């Protein structure tokens, strides 16, 4: 689905960084190391980092069925 606005564990606002993370690290070519991008975005805690690393964008796949 959509990336959560806040980290489930600590509540830090993370949703604003998703588009940049996807563009820089989650592309198929993999221009940058995802860990370096997360450091650059200021996501230091592993609870926030797992939100991005484990996220799968399914909103466009699922939305026609709602
Ligand atoms: Zn967190």
TrEMBL record:
Transmembrane segments: none annotated. Its main location: cytoplasm. Its EC number is 2.7.7.6. GO terms for cellular component: cytoplasm; DNA-directed RNA polymerase complex. Binds 1 zinc ion. SUPFAM superfamilies: RNA polymerase subunit RPB10 (SSF46924). Belongs to the archaeal Rpo10/eukaryotic RPB10 RNA polymerase subunit family. This is DNA-directed RNA polymerase subunit Rpo10.
């Amino acid at each position: 689905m959509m990336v959560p606005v806040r980290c489930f564990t600590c509540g830090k606002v993370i949703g604003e960084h998703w588009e940049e993370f996807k563009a820089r690290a989650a592309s198929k070519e993999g221009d940058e190391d995802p860990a370096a991008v997360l450091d650059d975005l200021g996501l230091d805690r592993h609870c926030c980092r797992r939100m991005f690393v484990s996220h799968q964008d399914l909103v466009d796949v699922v939305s026609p069925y709602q």
